[in-house]
Write a structure and sequence with these properties.
This protein is α+β, with helices and mostly antiparallel strands and 142 residues long. 28% of the residues lie in helices and 33% in strands. The protein has two helices and eight strands, in the order αββββββββα.
């Protein structure tokens, strides 16, 4: 076998490993108990909305800004300390990346106050997640 054939085999193996790694990363990010959906975030009413993504786990809500797949959360809120205010309707044309009716939700986390804009179906799911009893909350009750 000549050098070109060996090089071709090595490149094919490297490509296969990269494809498998990307598949594993995407599966671990979006499968299982992780629920991700698009959102908009702003620190207060005078700030501009910034596009992002929310991912909720059993005990926390992570906010990711725009960026590549290898990013870390911009904000991380524990479920027990997060409170939602009364949602209000927004103009869907201002949030082209969100589907359906859009709601702005004032949020409080400790002393921090911010707003999230979500599609109606994602708001309903997130509100249900926040208000439900976390897994294991009453695990030691007889």
């Amino acid at each position: 076998m000549d050098t070109g054939g060996i090089l071709l085999i090595v490149l094919a193996m490297v490509a296969a490993v990269l494809v498998m790694a990307a598949g594993f990363f995407l599966f671990s990010r979006y499968a299982g108990s992780h629920h991700s959906f698009p959102c908009a975030f702003r620190a207060d009413e005078s700030a501009d909305w910034r596009r992002g993504q929310l991912t909720y786990h059993s005990g926390r809500l992570d906010h990711y800004g725009r960026g590549g797949p290898f990013r870390s959360p911009v904000h991380r809120w524990q479920r027990a300390g997060l409170e939602f205010g009364i949602a209000r309707s927004q103009d869907p044309a201002a949030f082209s990346w969100l589907t359906g009716p859009v709601l702005a939700v004032p949020c409080t986390y400790g002393q921090d106050r911010f707003e999230l804009a979500l599609g109606l179906e994602h708001y309903t799911a997130l509100r249900s997640w926040l208000e439900s009893v976390p897994p294991g909350w009453n695990a030691n009750v007889a």
